[in-house]
Design a protein that fits this description.
Helix content is 62%, strand content 11%. α1 crosses α10 and α3 runs antiparallel to α5.
Amino acid sequence: MDIIKKLLGHLGEYKRPALIAPLCTMVAVGMEVLIPYIMAMLIDQGISKGDMGKVWLYGGIMLACAAVALVIDSASAVFGSRASTGLASNLRDALFEKVQTYSFSNIDKFSTAGLVTRMTTDVTNVQQAFNMSLIIATRAPISLVASLVMSIIISPKLSGIFLVAMVVLSAALIFIMLKTMPLFGQVFQRYDALNASVQENVTAIRVVKAFVREKHEDQKFAHAADEVHDLFVKAESLLAFNNPVMGVAIYGCIIAISWFGTHSILAGEITTGQLTSLLGYVFNVLMSLMMLTMIFVMVSMSAASGQRIVEVLEEEPDIVSPQNALMEVPDGSIDFEAVNFCYRTGDGEGEETLSGIDLHIDSGETIGVLGGTGSGKSTLVALISRLYDVEAGTVKVGGVDVRSYDTEVLRDAVAVVLQQNTLFSGTILDNLRWGKPDATLEECKIACAAACADEFIDRMPDGYDTMIEQGGTNVSGGQRQRLCIARALLKHPRVLILDDSTSAVDTATDASIQRAFAEQIPDTTKIIISQRVSSFGACNRILVLDAGHVDAFAPESELIETCAIYRDVYETQNKAGAEADFDKPEGFTYDPVSQRFDPAFADELPFEVDPVKVAELARKAGE
């Protein structure tokens, strides 16, 4: 009942149709229950006595009752549909709004596919169950009770047959429901796995095709689908007993009433018309019981769905803004003080990802972050914008614990271009304005110029009005990265974090982006995560992480001398860059200190050139 109360709490503006629908059903049932009783009078007072006047009278009354029942039943269906679809709409809105408040750890708990299943399949099940409850759950018990009352009025003796049938059917229904409800709960868990398979395949379809793994993906999906199929078959096999049990009850009642009713007629206890009406009430009673079985089946399915929906609605976000939260970030300084962090699994266990992190970054500094896979680079920067909370220690931005800020204010001040760059369906301008909804076209152009995105946007026929497909599938990886960087720059952040966000652009473009950062946002603290040292040319200091620990944090010149990890990466990449860098055009020399190509013929040109831009143009000409 608690689950039902919480679900119905989202009816909102649809309470009125939810009340009108069962009221209409009650009136319609009243009309339908009168029809067998009037039929008995038609037979006994009209047909049996040859009185055509009574036949026409009672026939007309029956027709009027049927017409009223039909009209009101139709109205009941309309109001019921409006209320149930309204409830479903409100539930989906509430679920989506709740998920927006979740931290990453909350989403990890349910999984993306699990949340999608709850907003679609589970809400649809609740919608159907609610619609049935408004109409059938009202009709069935009222019709059942009214038909029993009328049967008792006609013949208390014969009506006892109904009671026996009801006891048998009720016992069978309770047994079936208790057996099927746990199975339906398992079914919806398997739906999560099924949706996860679909989501993963569609998202990574290019990789699937590139590695010719279609058959493998088909088999994986088929396995998930078979699990859902097997559980449904098991549940439906139990529910299949409804029909034979119902059939035995209906036909058993008809035979028993016909047999004992004949003897009652001969004994003068009832009339022929009354026996006919009793048979009509048999069908009403047993059809009501059949409708109740349908409700029980739907309740069995929707109970599991309702529980899953309530779980999401009741989940408390791990990260919320405190009372009296600070509404301004003074500067871009960052401090990590004895920070430990680990990702928790569903049982609360987890392996430590970061341990003993102590760092101080001045406002306006440019910091490089280097480390192997799993060293904790992305986790480290996720703590700055409070996408996760630390297990121990403190993370400060602007000299203040991040937990003291309003989360929206903090995340507006800390712009993050994540490793997985995401664009949304809409124009390029629409995507850019995610960073600043009221940004002018000129502001967007300035941000795109800084991110080196203007050169490919200007080549597009529609320019900034070019439509981007969902996920940005109609632009290249490098173009997608540059648009995401421009989007972040529009926020004018205190801190800008690039989480391996220039991996898909060439080194010349990367250098241009770094130079634009230094010129246009000198007071913004910039943190650049990368696997190539050429991205660190403008960095004041470089942080080297190893297995969640700080291995070194110093300027590049010191790291080459003191940090074995950085020295190995630096020497390996610079050797490769000097000998075979794909951005090195013929006639250019490579300077490993500035990370730039200098044209040998620059002095011969009659105008001033930017070596990086010239290198980029030469590379493109070579292509």
